Amino acid sequence: MSAPGSLLLVSYFYPPTRDTGAQRPAAMAKWLARLGWDVSVVTTGAFGSSAEDAGGGGGSGPGGGEAARVRVIRSFDMQTWRARMAGHDRVDSLFDSDSYTGKPHPLSKVIVPEPLALAWAPFARRAALAAHRERPFDAVLTTSPPESAHTVGAALQRKGVRWVADIRDAWTYEPLRPPFPTKAQHR
What we know:
single chain, alpha/beta, 5-stranded parallel sheet, 6 helices
């Protein structure tokens, strides 16, 4: 039986962050690799790196067997500047951060769909396109939040890559942020 193909998973939240949102994409990458997919992950570099970044795989965990190989590509994120200004080399897990607040960032009222559309998504898109040129992907799976992760899937789809968008938290049904102040932003 031949391998399913090469897949890129795009997820902002991914280990080593301990945020709950990182566990689902990490498990997806591990199990897709165990099913035979050649899995690469594009994620932020703001949370630091892990042993998996060297292609060491996701471990043997539930289900047993040999560790699946997953290549992790960490893209630049302007959030690292904020961490450096606070004297840190990386962004802490969301709920461990001394700067976390439930109050939306002021830029979330201006930037559609959210501030990471400028702070991370352009760098992730550039990293994904470079990886695709190096080793073409058969499919891309983007997962949100943040919603701007889907711009990477759209860019690869324009290159002929099949795209699946995993929308974990709806934008309009029980949204995580207040409504945009203008009709143009909402549209």
